[in-house]
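Report of the visiting student (M.T.), summer placement. My assignment was to run the structure pipeline on a short list of targets and document each run. The first record concerns ATP-grasp domain-containing protein.
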Amino acid sequence: MTRRIGLVTYDPSSRDVHSDPEIDQLVQALRHDGLDAEAVVWSTENDWTAYDMLILKSPWDYSMRAEEFVAWLDATAAHVPILNHPWIIRWNIDKRYLWDLQAEGVRTPAFVTPASMDEAQQVLRGIDSHRVVVKPTVSAGSRNTGLFNREDPAALRLVGHILRQGKVPMVMPALPDVAQNGERSLVVFDGRYSHAAHKATILAEGGGYVGGEYAEVITAATPLDDEIDVAERCIQVVRQRAASAGLSRASAAPLYARVDIARDADGQPSVLELELFEPNYFTATVPSAVANFVSAVERALGRLG
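After the run finished, the structure tokens were exported:
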């Protein structure tokens, strides 16, 4: 019997959500592999029990409807396997997971989550960096994210905007390597390093985007061995955390992950983000990513029986 797969995506009527340029390609590749695959919008009425697996590909409107999305995730997971596992998503949806990585020896930029404007002022005055990044702990697509000189009043205004939305702001030093060399994004499928891409700098100092609008400039990249080691260590941490929460060995293994890395002041790889929820796979830049993804899905289906 043909297995039915749903690649979960966003409501196209949502405002300020960037399109997913690769989901149709992935759907076609899964169909070519003999699977009954389609893109499905998480917020629409659907008989989710008709699917053998749902894969969270690009539900990029979740941050504007976080409580609704988490409720859908929990309700749907009771009827159909969802990858990555909902526990992993809940852990990863808030960027304070970086503290868990730090606790396990993974280098990440230090950050603070001020609870008030007064606290934010103190953080900005005392932070050991001339430039800072301000963003919510829950966000997608660089929404409400800005790069500032720490003395720029706009940094504090963005903190206030995030607080007024009822969200938690995070303030972290901006790594010079990001401005100079961009980021390396390593993609891991089913626990196996697949490929990497280079992401040019997106944020311009002052709170805007390079070139005036959000635009990712992606090229193929070959990561250094220590960057691959760090990416694999991140996946180990996720598995350990998930297993400690009671997940089975199969459920604790992420189907997909993207690890964004830059070099810190000591020249060591530092994890800017571990994306286990809704990453871009960079299929247009690295065509082999498609076959690697399909193989990972097949292995995951095999574990489900």
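The radius of gyration is 19 Å. The domain at 97-106+181-201+215-287 is CATH 3.30.470.20 (D-amino Acid Aminotransferase; Chain A, domain 1). I thank the supervising group for their guidance throughout the placement.
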